[in-house]
Predict the structure.
Amino acid sequence: METDILRSLVIILSVSALIVFALSRVKIPPLVGFLLAGVIIGPHGLALLRDTHAVELMAEIGVILLLFTIGIEFSLSRLIRMKKAVIAGGGSQVALTIGLSALMSYTATRSLNTSLFFGFLIALSSTAIVLKMLTEKGEIDSPHGRMMVGILIFQDLCVVPLMLVTPSLSGATIDLADIALKMGKAALIIIAVLLSARWLVPRLLHHVVRTRSRELFISTIILLCLGIAYFTSKFGLSLALGAFMAGLVISESEYAHQATSDILPFKESFMGLFFVSAGMLMNIGFAVDNYLKVAIAVLLIFGLKLLTGTLSSLVSGSPFRTALHAGLGLAQIGEFSFVLAMAGKEVGLITEDFYQVFLSSTVLTMILTPFILNAAPSLSGWVASRRLMKRMTQMKQRSERAGHPATRHGHVIIIGFGLNGRNLANVLAEADIPYVVLEMNPDTVQKMKKKGEPIYYGDATSVEILHNLSIHKARLLVIAISDPASTRRIVSMARHENPDIFIIVRTRYLVEVEDLKALGASEVIPEEFETSIEIFSRVLHQYNFPGNIILEMVEKIRSNSYTALRDLDLPKRHLFEKCEWLPEIEMDGYKVPDGSFMTGKSISELQIREKTGITVIAVRREAEVITNPAPDFRFKRDDIVLFTGKREAMKTSLHYLRGAS
């Protein structure tokens, strides 16, 4: 038995690695490779693996770990903040999908119970695929990303009641009392787990961390994940829900980030096995023989879920483009539908033929999802820009846009009112510089409008919206949103509408800098590099590098589109280190550059203390150190001047010496 499991793992990992590597050469996502690997090696493919039980077990662990990490990342407080996307978006999506699916299938089955079960299967989308794709593309915090995540969370929470209802659907009538009893029992168990764990888990983790044993910490985290999942499953709930609750519990502690980083390698490995096992379920022969049925099923699933996903996003207040993007991202069947389908097959709700059609269409929708998500920004933007969609959007937003600043001139347009947008608005208001803000969160717009902010609701990817903001008269455009696709579109349109406008873009990743500049951005500020600049500046300061050297490095990096950091020519550390000759005092330094006005002049002639308030305490000239230099000491090029004084005086002196150079 042990060798059989080992053989299965070797086959899975070998074939998966080869296929994923080959597909990566043509930019096809790894998820597709795992699914194809499962199709090839499964019992209906080359039959390299016939007994899939062990693989399915490991795949189920992968799903548990996925929901566990989701629970950690989406804490209770964050879920509360996302309540509109979760409740309104998720609730309407699940209800619409079940209702429309049941209505369509009832005409063929004439069975209410079976039709409802069809709706259950189609309502769920793939949390694993969508979250992984959003994370890789850096779109988790984008408007469409938040909407998709909210709907997915609601769907995952619905797995429990759907699983509880499924056995009841197998009877001639639906026993509402039995369903209500099971729901109440589930609610009590969930509340009991959350309350007890909220008190016990933080204390337990605190004692574990005090041992300073990383192995014990990882073991405890995995124990909590699997233990709570097992406990909830013994009371009739799903393993996945228990894992999700375990993650929520840990998310409220100070050890959440460490738990996520430690569990991540396990999750990624087991998730690969999950997708392989999903592919192994597909019967290629059946799919080929019934290709027409499978093709129709895939088209119906995509069409129905695109419709319900878009409508539910619109219900939650998203603009049409964002809603369509979210609908495209959710237009596949989810991993938990496999579990539901098996349960329905066992109780006789679906036949073997329907089960095979469902499996084939599900795997195909999963394979197509990465390609659809990659095309979603362009597709949603294209559809939203059509004349009919423009008219619908204009009719909806006409009243909301009343009062747009059409008469402004020389102003700043801020796209996005997150932390960066708010800070910029505060500075502009203080400096009496006219500005206007465009934001897609209606709650934020309503709240800030009451505070007197010149903020308006709208989608900046619409050229009409930019015209209403007087883009042709604006002096600056600042884009500070977490949506890479929309950012690129806005930059391109703004540059086309106003060739002279100065465009500043905040982006999350360095790889987007060159693309955004090619589209017309004047300045692109990548967050990851600005953070790294701040870090290395402070590190070098602690090693007493002269302030002007640090500033010159920063300016060089920024002026070269952040590429200079790859090839910096820095002075060696030992030139600036604190030594026994230097008192432990607050100090800074300055390296005399070539052509400086300081060259050849003495300390008394420069009047450094009188003009800046600092005192020169030492000068390093090549290998020689001159401590407490006399007033008649004359500076030479490349002298490293160390001085002390109050922090304000040292900042002033640095600007003075650089400005006077």
